[in-house]
């Protein structure tokens, strides 16, 4: 009989195998029927099938009720165990695994497996994230002043095992260690140093001390950056400190201006000093050379003098007289038979002469009688002779 034919007779059967003609069949078996079949099989596996021979003929006996419950529990345990055996670790994380409560290993990123109920994930630590902690507090300096300091700490959980297991609360440990290191360094420094030029040094000391603290705690933390963002005195004395800072800035400005002036003056003075030294050296060399020349000349003259003393003495006398009177405009004439020496002021005698003749006589060492015209020489000679005759007649 086809599956879509209406039921009829005792042997009629629908496509789903339902033999009960008195029961309406609209589709596939119900979920309850499937569960009942599975329960019967599990009941038979766990000893529930012994209840069939009790003569009651009832499928809902006590043994049949316990079987489905056990089956559900077993399935749930299997599913839970399967899901609990697999876990994933992100690229930036490291998983710390405990086995029976004791450290076992650190898992790297990817799909990982563990033994259920034996292995336990103590924590997944992000080892690439820059963590940050900020604090602000008022502290006492070495010179007994109060300063308010703000600081920011950036750090990494470099060691996942130590970060997860060695300290119960690493974040709190970092906060307390940072404040302790800051107080220690600030308490050893002067207020002026913290507020002005010494802040970088204080910052470096705090970072070094904080890293030493963290290494001592073995917390697995590495400092990335530490920065003192602000340092200010109490508000009651803020104006006074502002005046001090302004005065210090003025001092620095004046020092810079003085240094600039010195940079402009010193090279000039050094140049002048070098020039004077060079001139003095040149003068020294000139004097030494002249002295050597005079000494050599004297040696040469002495050699000639030793050969002809009278002639050499006369020549030296004439050269000396010539050098003396070569630039003079006055003439002294020693007249034979006279009792005195005649003085001829040529400059006065030539006042009446032409300008060219006068300038040629009074122009210095380069002016001589050779530069005068013939008429000027004649006039000058006549004037000299008349003056000589006049004096002889007196």
From TrEMBL:
Pfam families: Band_7, HflK_N. The chain crosses the membrane at residues 69-89. It is a single-pass membrane protein. It is found in: Membrane. Its main location: membrane. InterPro entries: Band7/mec-2_domain, Band_7, Band_7/SPFH_dom_sf, HflK, Membrane_HflK_N, Stomatin_HflK_fam. Residues 84-245 form the Band domain. One of its GO terms (molecular function) is peptidase activity. The keyword Membrane applies. Residues 1-33 are annotated as: Disordered. Keywords: Hydrolase, Membrane, Protease, Transmembrane, Transmembrane helix. Residues 17-33 have a biased composition (Basic and acidic residues). GO terms for biological process: proteolysis. HflC and HflK could encode or regulate a protease. Belongs to the band 7/mec-2 family. HflK subfamily. HflC and HflK may interact to form a multimeric complex. This is Protein HflK.
């Amino acid at each position: 009989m086809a599956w879509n034919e209406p039921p009829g007779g005792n042997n009629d059967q629908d496509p789903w195998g339902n033999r009960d003609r008195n029961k309406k069949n609209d589709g596939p078996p119900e979920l309850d029927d499937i569960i009942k079949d599975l329960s019967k099989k599990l009941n038979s596996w766990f000893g529930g099938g012994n209840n069939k021979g009790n003569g009651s003929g009832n499928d809902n006996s006590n043994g049949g009720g316990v079987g489905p419950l056990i089956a559900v529990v077993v399935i749930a345990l299997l599913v839970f165990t399967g899901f609990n055996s697999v876990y994933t670790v992100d690229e930036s994380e490291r998983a710390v695994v405990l086995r029976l409560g004791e450290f076992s290993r650190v898992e790297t990123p990817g799909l990982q497996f563990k033994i259920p109920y034996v292995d336990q994930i103590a924590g997944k630590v992000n080892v690439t994230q820059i963590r940050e902690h900020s604090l602000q507090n008022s502290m006492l300096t070495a010179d007994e002043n109060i300063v308010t300091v703000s600081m920011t700490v950036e750090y990494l959980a470099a060691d996942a095992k130590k970060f997860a297991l060695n300290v119960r609360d690493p974040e709190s440990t970092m906060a307390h260690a940072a404040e302790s290191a800051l107080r220690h360094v600030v308490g050893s420094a002067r207020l002026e140093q913290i507020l002005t030029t010494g802040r970088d040094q204080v910052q470096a000391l705090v970072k070094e001390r904080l890293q030493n603290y963290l290494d001592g705690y073995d917390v697995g933390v590495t400092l990335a950056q530490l920065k003192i963002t602000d340092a200010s005195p109490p508000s009651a004395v803020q104006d006074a400190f502002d005046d001090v800072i302004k005065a210090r800035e003025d001092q620095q400005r004046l020092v810079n201006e003085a240094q600039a002036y010195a940079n402009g003056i010193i090279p000039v003075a050094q140049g002048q000093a070098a020039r004077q030294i060079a001139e003095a050296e040149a003068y020294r060399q000139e004097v030494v050379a002249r002295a050597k020349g005079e000494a050599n000349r004297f040696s040469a003259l002495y050699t000639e003098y030793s050969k002809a003393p009278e002639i050499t003495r006369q020549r030296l006398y004439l050269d000396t007289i010539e050098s003396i009177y070569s630039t003079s405009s006055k003439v002294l004439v020693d007249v034979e038979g006279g009792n005195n020496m005649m003085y001829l002021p040529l400059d006065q005698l030539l006042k009446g002469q032409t300008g060219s003749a006068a300038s040629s006589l009074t122009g210095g060492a380069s002016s001589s009688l050779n530069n005068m015209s013939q008429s000027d020489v004649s006039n000058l000679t006549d004037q000299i002779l008349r003056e000589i005759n006049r004096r002889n007649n007196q």
